[in-house]
Structure formats: structure tokens, C-alpha cells
Design a protein that fits this description.
Length: 148
């Protein structure tokens, strides 16, 4: 909905989740009528708030921004005021720990893969190059092994 990553709604609540893996906060522009900086996050608040008011009973609205632990600190600091006012910042470490500690007994066979995907983003540094090199190294070993 309107480029929102995840928009959840029930009879009483609206939840907006913006997921930032490898992208920055977009849509940055200055309002010509004020000194206010407007971002995609502001747009999502406006959309959810308007939708919450269209019902007979006003809905509660909740806003979250999920981001890896290596997400650029300066990017978060740039929008810290808005994040504190409206959005709750949730690191992938918190998400990983939450799901790891609450693994259902009847979890499907992909639950552990899901945890591994989350774990990749719990590091304080981006390790894409490390991961690429690990894959190349493993493939080189397999090729040598197969050629013997």
C-alpha cells in the first residue's frame, strides 16, 4: 500500500513497518512552506493516520522501522527526532533474539533458515564481501575436489 513495506490492519489497529536492509530513508524533501524536512516516513504516517480516521471508531496507529545493526548511524541520527516521536526503531538483533527465544514447538522446516537470514543482519558491520569471499572459497575447494 503506497510503497509501505508492511501495512497491517485489524478492527482497532494499524501497524506500519518500514524495513531498511540496504536502503536509506527516501523521499527527502524540504517543505516549501516551512523549514520542515519531509521523508517517506512522514508520508506513511499521513497515510495511516488518514486511514485510521476514516472508520467509525478511530484506530490506534503504530509505526516501526526495522533495520540491520550495521545500518548507518548517521542515517538514523538524521531522523532521530521523527523516529522518537512516531517510529520505534527495531534492530535485526532484537528481531532475531525475539524469534529465536520464541521458536514454536511445531515450527515449520524453514524456521531455522529464517533465523539465519535475520542473523546475517545482526552484525555491527556489513559483511557482504566476507560472505562473497566465503562462497568463492568454498566453490574453489569443491571444484578442486571434483577435479581429482
Amino acid at each position: 500500500m503506497e510503497n509501505i513495506d508492511l501495512f497491517l490492519e485489524d478492527e482497532r489497529n494499524i501497524i506500519v513497518i518500514e524495513n531498511k536492509i540496504k536502503s536509506k530513508i527516501n523521499g527527502i524533501r524540504h517543505d516549501i512552506n516551512s523549514d520542515k524536512v519531509i521523508t517517506q516516513l512522514h508520508k506513511y504516517v499521513d497515510i495511516a493516520t488518514a486511514k485510521a480516521k476514516t472508520n467509525k471508531q478511530k484506530k490506534n496507529t503504530y509505526f516501526f522501522i526495522f533495520h540491520p545493526n550495521y545500518y548507518p548511524k548517521q542515517e538514523l541520527e538524521k531522523f532521530q527526532e521523527k523516529l522518537q516521536e512516531t517510529y520505534k526503531s527495531v534492530t535485526y538483533k532484537k528481531l532475531h533474539d525475539f524469534f529465536k527465544n520464541r521458536k514454536p514447538q511445531n515450527a515449520d522446516r524453514f524456521y531455522d533458515d529464517f533465523l539465519l537470514a535475520l542473523e546475517k543482519h545482526t552484525s555491527e558491520i556489513v559483511d557482504d564481501l566476507l560472505e562473497e569471499n566465503r562462497i568463492l572459497f568454498t566453490n574453489a575447494i569443491l571444484e578442486i575436489k571434483d577435479s581429482r
